[in-house]
Structure to design on (123 residues):
């Protein structure tokens, strides 16, 4: 199968649910209830596990192991990032009603910069 097709599909499958969560399922609230946060975390971890199974099926065990390893590293780094955001919000006194917006822009900026770095690294 075409590798570009897989990357485009992967990005759509990551982008669409994240937009739905941020825009539709929060119902205008900036915070979800604790139970819903656990539920969405489980859904995303399950989606990553299903993707790893797809990689295993189409590409074999080594790429699946590499994806799973990368996913676990990124997951642990995201917990570290939450701590950094908490420190920044407290240090700069960002009010709770603006934290969701600041975090969303920070995530968008990080994704764009990551894409730029990947594109530069490939050329």
């Amino acid at each position: 199968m075409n590798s570009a097709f897989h990357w485009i599909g992967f990005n759509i499958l990551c982008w669409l649910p994240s937009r739905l969560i941020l825009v539709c399922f929060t119902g205008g609230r900036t915070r979800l209830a604790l139970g819903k946060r656990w539920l969405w975390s489980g859904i995303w971890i399950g989606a990553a596990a299903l993707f790893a199974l797809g990689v295993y099926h189409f590409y074999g065990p080594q790429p699946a192991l590499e994806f799973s390893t990368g996913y676990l590293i990124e997951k642990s780094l995201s917990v570290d990032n939450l701590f950094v955001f908490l420190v920044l919000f407290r240090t700069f006194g960002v009010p709770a009603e603006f934290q969701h917006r600041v975090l969303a822009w920070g995530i968008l900026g990080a994704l764009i910069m990551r894409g730029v770095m990947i594109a530069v690294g490939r050329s």
